[in-house]
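Colleagues,

For the teaching module next term, I've prepared a clean inverse folding example: a structure given as tokens, and then the sequence designed for it. I'd like students to try predicting residues themselves before seeing the answer, so please don't circulate the second half yet.
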């Protein structure tokens, strides 16, 4: 079986969203949207990877795959939870009414239905795709509640008074919308309430997640059509500190949102509490081309989500951070999983990491991947953070197809897909850089 370090990657073929992230019986399980037959999106199943420490991941093959009418055209995204020692998986089943006769993985004219399904596994190892599936929320008939096609990605959590489930959807006038449901037994769910934003924050909200942290509660959304600048991608992860009143499922959204990552390549988060109770997340790194023609799609490294004074921070997970213990003097000495460069960057300074540029200007961090992105001009090549609050410490994790720049321990993050980084490192005062890699 394939093993990945730090970043979970498609073990051949195509990967998109992480799904069903859970700490279960002493191990982390991560599932993901998977099409093994080609390096493009197709009829979805859930691939499965397992780790003891969030660092070394072992792939375990396919967990969920289409078997019933409701999910015949795909097992879309969803979440997991543990109850009574069992692992419950919640996901969206898709049924096409008009498959494209020339490519049955796609649907014509958006003629499809989405239902919400549940599968219970006794042990997180066996998944009874033939007898174990249950439809918990059929396609929505009432347009005032939600859209029968564009309603998906159930996230389930235990609240103070029962189980809650949130779905991403769209309003009749084309704004992103969330639908909240409640249950006492995980099997029968009642619709309680919805929320959307005016002016719109994109037309459809995918992969919604509501999380509680010590410093405040967070909503994470993957919003379709939130950036319309003619460049890829229009769909982005946004987040905000929110209030949620459980009884009536009333969520109050603020006026403005934050981007979870200013590299604008990540999408579709999965968040859980780790074994220490930290709120952590991973997300899908969108990539424009397959690596060695063999695989496409990977996940960012796990991050800890924290809220301070209404602002959401994303810092590297300590299990990952603490593995970079071996000091090196050049990238050529690094472990194959990559290396970390740390420094305090002054205004006007510039660092070149194998062709990927990072510089500080106007008290913002800017990055430019033009030289290491295979000439994909339809994508954004240059990025910047908002103005920094105070200081500018950078921890930059570099690996063959992803650079993750953490600024001031997660005040801002820029994560970018890259291709063909060289081993060169250039900075005016090299003695101020600290380079570390993993112990092999
Ligand atoms: C987000 C998404 C989800 C959906 C899945 C299908 O990337 O579109 O909304 O469940 O991907 O693969």
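(Answer key — instructors only)
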């Amino acid at each position: 079986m394939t093993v990945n370090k730090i970043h979970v990657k498609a073990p051949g073929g195509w990967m998109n969203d992480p799904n069903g992230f859970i700490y279960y019986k002493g191990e982390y399980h991560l599932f993901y949207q998977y099409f093994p037959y080609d390096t493009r999106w197709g009829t979805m199943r859930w691939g499965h990877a397992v780790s003891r420490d969030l660092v070394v991941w072992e792939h375990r093959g396919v967990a969920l795959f289409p078997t019933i009418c409701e999910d015949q055209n795909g097992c879309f995204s969803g979440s997991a939870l543990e109850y009574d020692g069992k692992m419950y998986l919640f996901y969206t089943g898709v049924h096409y009414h008009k498959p494209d006769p020339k490519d049955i993985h796609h649907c014509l004219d958006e003629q499809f239905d989405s239902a919400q399904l549940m599968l219970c596994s006794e042990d997180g190892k066996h998944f009874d795709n033939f007898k174990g599936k249950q439809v918990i929320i059929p396609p929505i008939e009432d347009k005032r509640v939600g859209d029968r096609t564009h309603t998906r990605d159930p996230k389930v959590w235990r609240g103070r008074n029962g189980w809650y489930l949130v779905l991403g959807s769209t309003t009749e006038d084309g704004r992103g919308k969330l639908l909240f449901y409640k249950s006492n037994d995980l099997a029968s769910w009642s619709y309680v309430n919805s929320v959307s934003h005016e002016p719109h924050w994109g037309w459809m909200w995918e992969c919604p997640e509501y999380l509680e942290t010590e410093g405040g509660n967070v909503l994470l959304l993957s919003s379709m059509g939130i950036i319309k600048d003619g460049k890829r991608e229009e769909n982005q992860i946004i987040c905000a500190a929110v209030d949620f009143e459980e009884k009536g499922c009333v969520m109050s959204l603020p006026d403005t949102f934050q981007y979870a990552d200013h590299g604008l390549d990540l999408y579709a988060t999965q968040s859980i509490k780790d074994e220490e109770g930290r709120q952590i997340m991973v997300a899908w790194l969108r990539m424009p081309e397959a690596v060695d023609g063999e695989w496409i799609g990977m996940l960012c490294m796990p991050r800890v989500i924290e809220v301070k004074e209404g602002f959401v921070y994303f810092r590297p997970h300590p299990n990952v951070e603490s593995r970079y213990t071996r000091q090196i003097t050049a990238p050529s000495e690094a472990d194959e999983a990559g290396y970390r460069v740390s420094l305090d960057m002054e205004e006007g300074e510039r660092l070149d990491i194998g062709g990927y540029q990072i510089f500080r200007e106007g008290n913002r961090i800017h990055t430019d991947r033009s030289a290491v992105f295979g000439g994909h001009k339809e994508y954004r090549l240059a990025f910047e953070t908002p103005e920094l609050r105070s200081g500018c410490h950078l921890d930059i994790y570099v690996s063959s197809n992803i650079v993750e720049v953490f600024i001031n321990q997660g005040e801002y993050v820029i994560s970018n897909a890259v291709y063909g980084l060289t081993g060169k490192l250039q900075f005016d005062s090299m003695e101020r850089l600290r380079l570390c890699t993993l112990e092999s």
